[in-house]
Amino acid sequence: MGTGKMSRVFFVYSRFIDRAVNIAGVVGAFLLLVVTLITFYEVIMRYVFNAPTTWSIDYSIYLIMWGTFLGAAFTLKQGAHIHVDILVKKFPIKTRMTIEIVIYSLILIFCTILAWRGFVSCLQAYLFREITLSYTRTPLYIPSLSIPFGASLLILEILRELVQKIHSGRS
Q1: Containing H/E element for 90?
Q2: I need a labelling partner for 127 at 20 to 30 A (CA). Which of 71, 81, 98, 142 fits?
């Protein structure tokens, strides 16, 4: 595959991932807003009407799981994950780029394992019809699906970041 064709393929891939990650980020933020509203509702019901809900904690946890995993790739794209770079800043730019590539590669390995193990866990929960022990009796695969889904988005974003870093290191 020629360099021009490869650049075009990467451009299409990058645009697709950019859109998917942006949508996931917006949905993740929206879910966290819903958690805030559920919590507000629970506080009013519990302390004003003395009638606590049986579902608010469970669904808040599930929505936080989904919001967190959906937002992780968006956070990576924005460069907003916490990182300690006090030592790395002292290195020359080429060395910093190499360190970043190694770190992103390690994160890629971790996210691949996370996605795979999350998928296996989710599949087992589905096949064995596991449900939560709480009052809501929610099928466990629904909140568990957030892990492989979010980790897969992270993998796609990391791959994009790696290609960009490797390409910018060559030029």
Answers
A1: none
A2: 71
